[in-house]
Amino acid sequence: MLVYIGLGSNLQNPLQQIKTAINDLQSLAGVTIITVSSLYQSPPMGPADQPDYINAVISLETSLSPHQLLDALQSVEQLHGRERKRHWG
Predict the structure, then answer these.
(1) 28 neighbors 75 (Cβ within 8 angstroms)
(2) How many CB atoms lie within 10 A of CB 22?
(3) CA dihedral in degrees (71, 11, 17, 74; nearest 10)?
(4) Phi and psi for 20 in degrees, rounded to 5?
(5) Would the pTM of this model clear 0.85, i.e. be above it?
(6) Is 27 exposed, middle or buried, given 0-12, 13-18 or 19+ CB atoms closer than 10 A?
(7) How many other C-beta atoms lie within 10 A of the C-beta of residue 58?
(8) What residues are paired with 35 via a beta bridge?
(9) pLDDT digit string (tens) for the chain, length 89 residues
């Protein structure tokens, strides 16, 4: 199955966070990265009291089910210290 994943980071060296996330995703079983977009800087959506984001999109081929892929992606987020403290945060 071909899927597209949006990546974004605005804390703790966002450029390196994105690059490391791409490497982490490549190492997931059942996942092969096909294409990585350019990296883009953008202002935050919602509360403006946070730094700009670095964003990218990747396309990948996966044999994982949608729920398995979601679990794998959220595991990568946790490895990177993702905290869900507020909406749009």
Answers:
(1) no
(2) 17
(3) 0
(4) -70, -40
(5) no
(6) exposed
(7) 20
(8) 59
(9) 999 999 998 888 999 999 999 999 999 999 999 999 999 999 988 788 889 999 999 999 999 999 999 999 998 888 877 666 655 55
